[in-house]
Amino acid sequence: MTREEKIEKLRNLQKAYILYSMFTKIPYVECEEGNYYDQVFLFETKEDAEAMAKKIFEKGDLVGVTELKTVEMPQPQTENSNVVPMRKLMRNQVREHLMKFPLCGINAVYFQPAGEEGESLPIDDVLPKEVKAEVEKEKSPRMGVQLTGIYFAQYVRRKEKDNAVLQEKYEEFYANLARTKLLLPVIPPEELKNEKTLDLSKCMLPIYNPQNGPEGEKIPMMGLFSNMDELVVHSRNHVSEVRVVEADLADLQKFVPANVEYIVVDPLTLCITLKVADVVRIINSIRER
Predict the structure, then answer these.
(1) Per-domain residue ranges for the chain?
(2) Which of the chain's ends, N or C, has fewer CB atoms near its CB within 10 Å?
(3) Assigned CATH topology for domain 178-287
(4) Are the beta carbons of 17 and 67 closer than 8 angstroms?
(5) How far apart are the C-alpha atoms of 34 and 107, rounded to whole Å?
(6) Phi-psi region of 215 (alpha: psi -120 to 50; beta: other; left: phi over 0)
(7) Can you list the pairs that 74-81 forms with residues at least 24 positions away whose Cβ atoms lie under 8 Å?
(8) How far apart are CA 205 and CA 221, in angstroms?
(9) Which residues, including other chains, have CB under 8 Å from residue 261's CB and lie 6 or more apart?
(10) C-alpha span between 26 and 227 (Å, rounded)
(11) Distance CA 49, CA 64 (A)
C-alpha cells in the first residue's frame, strides 16, 4: 500500500484502535525519530495495536488500547406523532480525534492498516484543506503547554527514568507555561456577575482535595486548564454559573487562597501538580531572561 493510499484510508476510517497513556488517560504521544514528529499511534486492527502497546510498555511507558468507532448520536424524544423523525446523526470518533490532535501540538499519526507496515503520516497531509482551515482557527497559544505537559506527565510517572531527561522535559513545560495564560473557571458572587473584570480573590475557585499530593497526603489544590474541552467537562454541573478567565500564573499569589499551596494543571488528564510559590518564582525568572 502506498503512502497516499494509507492517507486516503485513514481519512475514511469508520473504526480504529488508538494507544492511550495509562498515566494521562489521553492518547499516548511519542517523538518520532526520523522527522521528530510528535505522533500518536492508530491501527486498523486490535492485534496490531496490542503488539505495539507491548513494545512501548517494554520501554517503560504504560499504555492501553482504546477502540474508536462510528456511533449513533442520541436524538431528542417526542410524543408528537406528527413530527417527522430526524435522520440519524452519526459521530465518527476517528475523525474527531484527527481534528483535535493539531490543537494540542500533535503533528503526525503513526498509522498501520491491516496487513501492512505502519508509517508516520503528517496531520497536514491527512486533513482535507477545508478542515485544516477550520482547525487553524481553533488553535490556541496554550497548545505548547499541552504538548510539553503530555511528555512531562508521561515521563515523570515512569518507574525508571533518567533525571537529565526528566529535567529537560520539566524545563520545556515551564518555558511554555511562562509564555501564556491558563484557563480558570470561576463562579463570581452575585454582585460581580455583570462585571467585565473580576476580582478573582472574591470568586469561587476550582479547589480540589485529592489524595495524591506530592507526598501522598491529602491537600487542597487549585485546578487550571490548558484546554477548553477538559474545562467544560470539569464545569458541566455549573455550566450556567461559570465564567472562564485567562490567568497569568505569575499572579497566582494575588488570588489563590492562603491555605492552597499547590495548583494542578489539567486535573482530569495531565494532573501535573506544582507548588504555587515555585511557579511564581520560576516563571518570573524565565521572563526576566
Answers:
(1) 3-78+86-138, 178-287
(2) C
(3) Trna Endonuclease; Chain: A, domain 1 (3.40.1350)
(4) yes
(5) 14
(6) alpha
(7) none
(8) 10
(9) 219, 220, 275, 276, 277
(10) 13
(11) 9
> Which residues in 103-118 are b (16+ Cβ under 10 Å) and which e?
bbbbbbbbbbbeeeeb
Q: Are strands 221-224 and 207-208 parallel, antiparallel or unpaired?
A: antiparallel
Tell me the residue type at 165: V
Question: Which residue has 512531562 as its cell numbers?
Answer: 152
Residues in the chain: 289
> Which amino acid makes up residue 286?
I
Are the CB atoms for 201 and 214 separated by under 8 Å? no
How many Å apart are CA 39 and CA 95, to the nearest integer? Answer: 16
**DSSP letter assigned to residue 102:** G
Question: How far is 177 from 287, CA to CA, in rounded Å?
Answer: 11
Q: Residue 150's Cα: distance from chain center in Å?
A: 7
Query: From first to last of its 289 residues, what are the pLDDT tens digits of the chain?
Result: 999 999 999 999 999 999 999 999 999 999 999 999 999 999 999 999 999 999 999 999 999 999 999 887 766 665 665 655 556 778 899 999 999 999 999 999 999 999 999 999 999 999 988 888 989 898 998 999 999 999 999 999 999 999 999 999 999 999 999 999 999 999 999 998 888 889 998 999 999 876 555 566 678 999 999 999 999 999 988 878 899 999 999 999 999 999 999 999 999 999 999 999 999 999 999 999 8
Distance CA 63, CA 45 (A): 16
